[in-house]
Design a protein that fits this description.
- This protein is 74% helix and 1% strand.
- The protein is an all-alpha fold and 273 residues long.
- It has two domains: 42 residues; 225 residues, no CATH class.
- The protein is globular and about 90 Å long.
């Protein structure tokens, strides 16, 4: 009996140990899975950032078009002549500046690209090119925070970015900008120029160029819908409209020819905006 009892006791201990090992392995798997899921949720890709930027440009572009800070001439110059500084440089710079202003106000450690998404050094795209662009934005955000801009100053910046060269403080003398402090003006103008420089570097990236063509198409259609671009009986007007449509449709075809990757990129970006 004692031998049998000892054997049963030994088997019971071994079974218990085996169950504990299984439980430990299961716990590790769950823990590892949780970490992996957490990383998957928090780690953003370049397409997320592109999606946010161009969605923001689209929203701001529509607003600026209706308020007159972007006009038909700007769209014409971009589509027909290829001069896209206002749409391709100033509009993205304004969209990024809005992000920096919101991030500075909220004391964000990173960049608030939406109500629910904060880009930080730990979760932004692990891509050297993006690190070169995003890291300077964090520095600019801190500069903006130290300036402690008033609401009236922030409102004025939209017009100043879109309509002025921002090379000298005196440019702002008759713009309605609240502060007459030339040092403060110079600091803000330096911020604007640096943002435009960053966007200029962005614009060399193929993804930027593809998405920018879509943005121009959206603004062109918005201009038609709001009556800023209208069909007329004049031959030159009809020819101009036809020329614009051909160029816009040509851009659309080129964009479509890039295949599913662009469609997926667009969906990825829209998911976090």
């Amino acid at each position: 009996m004692s031998s049998s009892g000892g054997l049963e006791s030994k088997m019971s201990i071994e079974q218990r140990n085996e169950k504990e090992k299984e439980g430990s392995r299961s716990s590790k798997l769950v823990s590892h899975g949780s970490r992996t899921l957490k990383q998957a949720i928090q780690q953003y890709t370049p397409m997320h950032v592109w999606g946010w930027l161009f969605k923001s440009c689209e929203v701001n572009g529509r607003i600026l078009l209706r308020e007159g800070f972007i006009d038909v001439k700007d769209i014409d110059q971009c589509i027909v002549k290829g001069d896209c500084k206002k749409l391709g440089i100033k509009l993205p710079a304004w969209s990024i500046l809005q992000c920096l202003l919101a991030s500075a106000k909220s004391n964000s450690q990173g960049l608030l690209i939406s109500d629910e998404v904060e880009l930080t050094k730990s979760n932004w795209p692990k891509d050297k090119v993006f690190e070169w662009f995003l890291a300077p934005l964090l520095v600019i955000k801190e500069q903006i925070k130290t300036l402690q801009l008033g609401e009236d100053e922030e409102i004025s910046l939209r017009k100043l970015i879109m309509c002025y060269k921002n090379e000298r403080p005196e440019e702002w003398d008759n713009t309605g900008f609240p502060s007459t402090d030339t040092v403060r003006r110079a600091q803000l103008q330096a911020v604007i120029r640096r943002l435009q420089g960053i966007v200029g570097s962005f614009s060399r990236v193929p993804t930027f160029r593809r998405r920018f063509k879509n943005l121009v198409k959206v603004l062109y259609l918005e201009a038609i819908q709001t009556g800023l671009i209208a069909e007329t009986d004049g031959g030159s007007s009809r020819a101009g409209n036809r020329n614009r449509r051909q160029r816009v449709n040509g851009d659309k075809k080129n964009t479509d020819d890039n295949g599913e990757q662009n469609d997926q990129s667009s969906r990825d970006g829209d998911s976090i905006v």
